[in-house]
Amino acid sequence: MHPEIQFYHSSLENSEQKICEFLEHTINSVLKKQESKIWHAHPVWFIDENPIVGYSKQKKGIRLMFWSGADFEEEDLSVRGEKFKDASVFYNDVSEVNVKDLKRWLKKSMDIQWDYKNLIKRKGKLERLK
What is the CATH number of the domain that holds 65? Predict the structure, then answer.
């Protein structure tokens, strides 16, 4: 586990920590060898410097967010971003995480990508990579 991500987990309450550790383990098992780091104060995974998936503690629970998730056509990724192509789901207990769904979403995150890496250079305009 990346030391910064481990530190992030250690700052959470026990139930939140279990969710995040489970998510981290599952994400790493599918997105093998992809870069992960703390980005904008929470764990995020990247493919070629483009953010793909991350999670964060929020009032509603642990938010798992896919940057291009709005195009995954997955009804359980129901929390949609208003401005970009992100989609999320919230967890309040590790038992709520459906591993089969999570792995399917992670595989889609490799195949469906919008270019967030160059968002500033393109003055807020997203372009599809894959």
Answer: 3.90.1150.200
